[in-house]
Each structure stands twice: as structure tokens, then as C-alpha cells.
């Protein structure tokens, strides 16, 4: 895997921008002027755009350079925060990782070690040798003077200090990802990657349309949907690894240092197979549902919380949740081949309901309508590609809403 030095190059860009010239920047970063100038040229070559206008009076940022400077400044802030937070753990304040003096591969290797927890597997995934992965970890631990991972014969797990550093590192790496999309938009293109999570009800009609339109118009984009328990998703948003979650909005989210953008509302219906014992009734009481197994999302998911609250308000015993999953294919299959029921927005299973395979039972669920929208990190600056996807999802949510 070829090393990328964009963090080091961006450090030079910060210095040149804030000092006004290559020579002054060289004094600031304690490097030769020729080395600073070379870093700027290498960064321009890697990004494929001019970042500075060279003028007799100094260096002036181009519009591309302005984009790079804003992202680089956010990276610097994150790594400065890591420095401040780790001093209490005995870390060296002059460690290269805090000063944007390590390569992108170093940081990515540390993140993958946290994710996978097995050095040989990380080496294989990154196309590196195991000694190379070990050397990177040793270099960072030696320079920071803190142990970042607990080692055992089976698995590596981050120490408390490791979690602190890697939280900030993941945020810094997300800014590099956003920069590619920002540069592409400035050139009149749409490119880059968006990582997001979405509630199951959006995956049948809303997301396929929004994503299909985007990739038809902009073939160079990459969209990755993450499916995980909600606590994992929230952690991913906070670390910058997930750009947004499209989900039901809970008032509790405002206490998580998150930003919420509401795009609509949705209700819930109880769905079962067409041959279900309750399917022929003209009215079903909520208490009748307790006799059947349920399929719901994991605890912490908005739908699960809304239903739990509803049963408690009505004084009805909580039903048995036989299956916990947000997977649409599993939901469809279990409902069709059992007497299980589930409470979901009917749009989530619109094709199966229209075909007669599944049926919305005639039961009223009081006070379960909820707001739906995007959840982002409060201080996030999404890439242009991410904003374009969110904008189109919001537009389609209005057009696909019942009665629209």
C-alpha cells in the first residue's frame, strides 16, 4: 500500500496560508523552504488542482486552496484536541501524530487495528506485512509515550488512551474524505464517498430513488450504507466515520451533541401475513397482539422505544420480542412464514402489502407517529456530495408522503 503524505502536506499548506509565504512557513515548521515548496507541489499534484497563486508579494489561496485550508484546519483542531486530552495520560505533547507529521497510512492502520483487533488480519486487509503494521504501532506508541492497545494472544483492544486518540484520528481522516468531494464540486463534478445509515422504512422507495438518481447523474460517487445497532451508529456519527443517520427523531438526541434536521413524519402499522389468525378480523385490540411473537429493531431504535412507551402507557404487558433485526429481507421472510407480527411504517413493506402477501392489521396504535429526519454530528461540515444526497432525500420524502 503506497504511503500518502497528505497530512504532512496539509500542514505545510496551513503554515504557508497563515504566514503568507514559503520562507516564513519554513521558519514556522522548522523545515527548509525547498521542502515546504515541494510539499505544496506534491499536494497540488495529488489533488489535481492549483492551491496557490504565486505572486511577488507572497502566496494567495485559490478557491481550491480555500477548500483545502478549511478542511486542514479542522484536522489540526482535532489532533490538537487529542494532544490536550492525552497529556493527562502522560503523552508527549511533541509526538508527530499531534502535529500532522505522520502519513495517512499510519492513522488508517491504527483505526483498522481498533476495528479488527487482529494484527495479521489488518496486514492482509491493507496489503502490508505484519512487521510493517507492528512497526507503525510501535512508532506511534514510542513517540506518544503511551500504550494504545492491550495485547493478548487472540485480540488487540484499545486502551483508554488509545480510544481517546483514535476518536480524534477518525474525525481527522473524515475531513480528508470530505476534501475530495469538495474539490470535485469546485471543478463542476460530483465525486467522493458518503457513509450513512437509514431506517428500514426508507429502504423500499425513498432511498432507492434518491440513490438511483444520484449515481445515474454522477457515476464517480460511492455510497455506503452502514447497518448496526443504534449505539454503534451514533458512535460512528460522532467519530466522523458515518456522515448521517436517516431515522426517527427522538427528543433525547439533543443531549448527544447531535444536530437534527427534520424532513417529515411517519406512522406505524402492525403487519402480519395474509393468513395470520388476526388477519380476518375487522378490529384488533392492542392486547390481542401480546399473544404473538414480535419482530422488532434492537433496543435503542426509535421504533422500539415508541412501542415500549405505548404499551407502558396503556398498561399492557410488553410483547415477546422473538427476533431483533432491522434487515428487510429477514423481516419479510419471518412475517410470511410465521404468526409473528411487527410494527413498521407500511411504506417499508409496500410491495408485499400491495401484492396481498402481507396485511396491515386493523389495530389502532395511539401516539406512535414520529418525526423523521437526519441526525448529524453537531459541528459537522458535510461534503458537497453528502449535502446533495440529503437534499434529494428530503425532496423525495415530501413527494412520497401520504397525501402528497
**How many helices does DSSP assign?**
14
| SSE class | alpha/beta
Across the major sheet, the strand order is: 6-5-7-14-8
- Identify the overall geometry: elongated
Query: What string gives the helices and strands in order?
Result: HHHEEHHHHEEHEHEHEEEEHEHEHEEH
Q: Total strand count, please?
A: 14
Over the alpha carbons, how many angstroms does the gyration radius reach? 25 Å
Query: How far apart are the termini?
Result: 51 Å
Could you tell me the strand content as a percent range? 15-25%
Give an overview of the whole structure.
With 404 residues, the chain is an alpha/beta fold. The protein has 14 helices and 14 strands. The strands form 5 sheets. Strands 6-5-7-14-8 form a 5-stranded mixed β-sheet. The protein has a 3-stranded antiparallel β-sheet with strand order 12-9-13. α11 (302-314) links the parallel β10 and β11 (321-324). α1 packs across α2 (22-29) and α5 crosses α8 (160-186). The longest helix has 27 residues, at 160-186. The radius of gyration is 25 Å and the shape is elongated. The model has no long low-confidence stretch (mean pLDDT 90).
What's the arrangement of secondary structure elements?
Elements: H1 6-19, H2 22-29, H3 33-47, E1 52-55, E2 58-61, H4 63-87, H5 104-116, H6 119-126, H7 130-144, E3 149-150, E4 157-158, H8 160-186, E5 192-198, H9 206-217, E6 221-225, H10 230-239, E7 244-248, E8 258-266, E9 269-273, E10 294-296, H11 302-314, E11 321-324, H12 328-336, E12 342-344, H13 350-355, E13 358-360, E14 370-377, H14 384-400
Helix pairs in contact: 1-2, 1-3, 1-4, 2-3, 4-8, 5-6, 5-8, 6-7, 9-14
Amino acid at each position: 500500500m503506497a504511503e500518502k503524505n497528505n497530512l504532512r502536506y496539509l500542514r505545510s499548506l496551513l503554515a504557508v496560508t497563515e504566514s503568507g509565504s514559503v520562507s516564513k512557513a519554513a521558519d514556522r515548521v522548522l523545515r527548509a523552504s525547498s521542502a515546504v515548496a515541494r510539499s505544496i507541489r506534491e499536494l497540488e499534484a495529488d489533488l489535481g488542482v492549483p492551491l496557490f497563486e504565486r505572486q511577488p508579494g507572497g502566496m494567495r489561496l485559490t478557491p481550491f486552496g480555500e477548500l483545502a485550508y478549511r478542511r486542514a484546519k479542522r484536522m489540526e483542531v482535532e489532533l490538537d484536541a487529542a494532544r490536550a486530552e492525552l497529556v493527562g495520560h502522560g503523552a508527549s505533547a511533541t509526538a508527530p501524530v499531534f502535529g500532522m507529521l505522520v502519513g495517512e497510512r499510519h492513522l488508517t492502520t491504527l483505526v483498522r487495528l481498533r476495528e479488527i483487533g487482529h494484527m495479521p488480519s489488518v496486514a492482509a486487509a491493507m496489503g502490508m506485512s505484519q512487521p510493517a503494521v507492528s512497526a507503525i504501532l510501535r512508532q506511534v506508541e514510542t513517540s506518544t509515550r503511551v500504550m494504545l492497545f492491550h495485547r493478548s494472544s487472540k485480540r488487540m483492544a484499545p486502551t483508554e488512551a488509545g480510544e481517546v486518540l483514535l476518536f480524534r484520528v477518525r474525525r481527522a481522516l473524515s475531513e480528508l474524505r470530505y476534501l475530495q468531494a469538495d474539490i470535485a464540486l469546485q471543478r463542476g463534478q460530483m465525486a467522493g464517498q458518503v457513509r450513512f445509515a437509514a431506517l428500514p422504512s426508507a429502504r423500499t422507495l425513498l432511498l432507492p430513488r434518491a440513490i438511483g438518481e444520484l449515481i445515474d447523474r454522477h457515476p464517480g460517487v460511492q455510497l455506503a450504507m452502514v447497518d448496526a445497532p443504534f449505539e454503534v451508529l451514533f458512535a460512528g456519527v460522532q467519530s466522523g466515520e458515518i456522515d448521517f443517520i436517516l431515522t426517527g427523531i427522538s427528543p433525547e438526541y439533543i443531549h448527544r451533541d447531535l444536530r437534527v434536521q427534520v424532513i417529515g413524519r411517519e406512522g406505524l402499522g402492525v403487519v402480519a401475513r395474509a393468513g395470520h389468525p388476526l388477519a380476518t378480523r375487522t378490529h384488533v385490540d392492542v392486547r390481542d397482539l401480546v399473544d404473538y411473537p414480535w419482530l422488532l429493531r434492537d433496543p435503542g431504535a426509535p421504533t422500539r422505544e415508541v412501542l415500549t412507551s405505548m404499551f407502558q402507557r396503556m398498561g399492557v404487558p410488553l410483547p415477546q420480542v422473538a427476533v431483533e433485526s432491522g434487515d428487510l429481507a429477514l423481516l419479510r421472510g419471518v412475517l410470511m412464514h410465521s404468526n409473528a407480527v411487527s410494527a413498521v411504517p407500511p411504506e417499508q413493506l409496500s410491495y408485499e402489502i400491495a401484492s396481498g402477501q402481507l396485511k396491515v392489521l386493523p389495530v389502532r396504535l395511539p401516539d406512535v407517529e414520529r418525526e423523521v429526519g437526519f441526525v448529524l454530528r453537531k459541528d459537522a461540515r458535510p461534503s458537497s456530495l453528502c449535502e446533495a444526497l440529503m437534499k434529494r432525500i428530503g425532496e423525495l420524502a415530501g413527494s412520497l408522503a401520504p397525501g402528497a
